Please model this.
Amino acid sequence: MAEKIWQPLKRRYCEHARAVVTLDAELVYPAEHLPDQPPRVEAHRCSGAVDCRLFNRGTCVWASTNPDYDPFLEKS
Ligand code: SF4
Model:
């Protein structure tokens, strides 16, 4: 049976959340009878996005409020 896990890819300080947040990828590992296949990336998320949406703080692509701004693409 395939296995799904969320794996952190990047960490950075977010000015909007005033906290360190991570960009996570949902990886799907194949079933045991296909051991040589690499994991498939299903989705990405920001660890702070839920709080941003709840408190209307987010202003980026991961909070679904600004598709033109991705804080994880900025150089830190
Ligand atoms: S969703 Fe965007 S604004 Fe909110 S914590 Fe993540 S990077 Fe920051």
